[in-house]
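Checklist before submission:
- one chain only
- standard amino acids only
- sequence pasted in full

Submission:
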Amino acid sequence: MQIHTRIASLRAALASAGRIGFAPTMGNLHAGHVSLMRTARQHADSVVSSIFVNRLQFGPNEDFDRYPRTFKADCEKLEAAGVDHLFAPDEATLYPQTQTYLVTPDPMHDGLLEGAIRPGHFAGVTTVVSKLFNIVQPQVACFGKKDYQQLMVIRNMVAQLNLPIEVIGCEIVRADDGLALSSRNGYLSAEERTQAPQLQACLQQVVSAIVTGDRNRETLETQARDVLIRQGWAPDYITIRRQADLQAPEPGDAVVILAAARLGKTRLIDNLECPALW
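Returned file contents:
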């Protein structure tokens, strides 16, 4: 695996790389990230990943400074996964000037759920992803479904900007007890880690109710929220949305149940796509 810290070096290496599959990351990698690399390999001649903790997508009171930097271990995982090129720029390389030009998502997609709770987050995501797309120029890009709203926003950005990139959403990788793998799981105490699968179990209960015919959205969401609160969580939301744009579902829509909640000081997100239409 070749490691590039400069844009010119990466572009030169990719000039004859054939079809490129790209999976950007912020590092602190786990098996979920590795699955993105393996998916990219199935669709490309050369696989590129990136490690960059993007300041633009963190709010002023979020965990930018304490976000784990585990570069050596990350490189070992990427090389074992068959990544050909790693782009690992510093801030001066990716943001040589103050980034005053931003890629701003549609308010219909940005002003709800994660976007409402974390103002400016998705503008930071779309801006850095568009810069990385311009640098790497992949034909395929892989993103995990755990960040469901992020995936939706990036797909819409690619479509509206006419970027010649196929965006592939990769399934959530879970621990044996059902917890979605996340770089922030490491913030959990031992006791919190035993409780953490309750979030996915709550989502499963909502899915089961929909599959058996319940379509009372407000009641299902309220009951699920109450379950989490009784178990000691502080939910930001647990909601049933249309998969395509995360708006309120209409009859016949494919739906997804999304949740974000704090357990102690750690904020976790998760989602489940429902096999039954609304």
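Reviewer check: The CA atoms of residues 55 and 64 lie 7 Å apart.
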